[in-house]
Every structure is written in structure tokens, then in C-alpha cells.
Amino acid sequence: xxxxxxxxxxxxxxxxxxTGDDATKAAVRAVEDAIRRVLFPRMRxxxxxxxxxxxxxxxxxxxxxADRVDxxxxxxxxxxxxxxxxxxxxGHRQPNGLIGEDGQEGVILVAVAVIAVGW
Length: 119
Description:
This protein is α+β, with helices and mostly antiparallel strands and about 120 residues long. It has helices spanning about 25-35, 45, 70-75, and strands at about 10-15, 55-60, 80-90, 90-100, 105-119. Strands 1, 2, 3, 4 and 5 form a 5-stranded mixed sheet that branches.
């Protein structure tokens, strides 16, 4: 194959922080969920120059409190490629039934990742 092909592959993942209301933790877990069950055994055969460094990866993470996501921490979860990460408002926030020492009810925070791969 020659030229640019994007996206070639799409994968989704879900990440949850059960008690910390931590948007970054949920986002990182969503990316881990997406990439842990995907294997691209012949990817080098189709990448320009046969080099995974030429792989283009775009991750969109929908999570409550998207402005609190540490993009660099999410990007660090990808083993190779030219990675672009963006966080957008979405996902889900749900009371978890726990009351913290501050008297506030805790929440479950759910993030959804869509990972696009190509070149």
C-alpha cells in the first residue's frame, strides 16, 4: 500500500475510576482497555518504511471533566506511533454510594475511548 490510509483500524475502550473522580485515571484505563485486546501482527508490512514510528494514532476520550485530563499521561499509554490525544466532554458520572470524610457523596467516573490507527 502506498499513500495515506486513515483510519485503517478503529477500536473502543471503557475506563472507570470507582472512587477518585479522577478523569485522567479513567481516560488512561479506557486507552488500556482498547489497546490490550488488539494485535496487529502484519502492521509493519503496510506501514511506510515498515516502521511503527510512522503509524498515526488518534485517541478521542469522552469523559466528564475533560479539561482535567492529563493528555501526556494518556499519550504515554501508547507503545509507539505518532500519537494525538484529545479529551472531550462525555462519558458518565454516577454516585457510588460512598460518603467521604468531607461529607460529600463519591462518584464513579466512566470514560470512553475511540482509537483510530493508520498512516
